[in-house]
Amino acid sequence: MLTSSLELIERLLEGTMNRKTAQKLRRWQHEWQSRNANTLVLDYVEAETKLRFNIQREARVQVEHEALFISSTKNIDNDKRATASTVSRVEALQKELRSLSEGIWHQERKLDVVHARLCSLPIRRALVSCHKDKEWYLSEWMRADCARREGCCARECGCCRRPQHRGHCTAACACCEQSRGFAVTGKDVWEPGKMAWVSIENQLNIYATRLRDAYFFGL
Ligand SMILES: [Zn+2]
Ligand SMILES: [Zn+2]
Ligand SMILES: [Zn+2]
Question: Which domain of life is it from (predicted)?
């Protein structure tokens, strides 16, 4: 009874353009009754980060693949050794593209599963409400977080506003790599999600709590 009354208040607030207050009310309910959904929160953030990484990496590999494919067809009879090495690189890139699209498919399914597992919890209503705004990820905190990691929000390039970038920069962002001057590899690839994943079950650390508020509540 109490839950349905609170849902009604949320709807009234949303209907009167008070989405932020409705989201704060959902966050209060989440803190109060569904803390054990915190593992799902981290699963969601992890899947979304990996999805974004794969999409940004795919864009970068596609550019290299196209350029090499064109040069391999132009120089086909000139330098046989160079052509052979270009062909093998093209094949490696094609293999990586297949594995990236497989990764994208898997992470999208994982997001669907987490979404379904959130059932009728207040945090699910918050997520649906937050993502009604296509620019939800351009909140002040998320842009500052991207800039802190020296992502494109720290520069004037505007990459994070482009739909094909799918959000803020990951280690796979080609523009960031160019600005940094080196590629990020190994475990560092998964920063910033890594900082949240050290949370103990049912207890998010400060950074994970901020990520949760940004991802689910738009706060
Ligand atoms: Zn970037
Ligand atoms: Zn950029
Ligand atoms: Zn950004």
Answer: Eukaryota
User: 155 C-alpha vs ligand 3 centroid, how far in Å?
Assistant: 9
Ligand approaching nearest to the C-alpha of 159: 2
Q: Which sequence spans correspond to the domains of the chain?
A: 2-217
pLDDT of residue 185: 82
- Winning range, highest mean pLDDT, from 9-23, 71-85, 161-175: 161-175
Distance, CA of 140 to CA of 218 (rounded, Å): 10
Residue 153: nearest ligand to its CA? 3
Ligand 3 centroid–CA 153 distance in Å is 4
Q: What is the DSSP string of 198-215?
A: TSBTTB--HHHHHHHIII
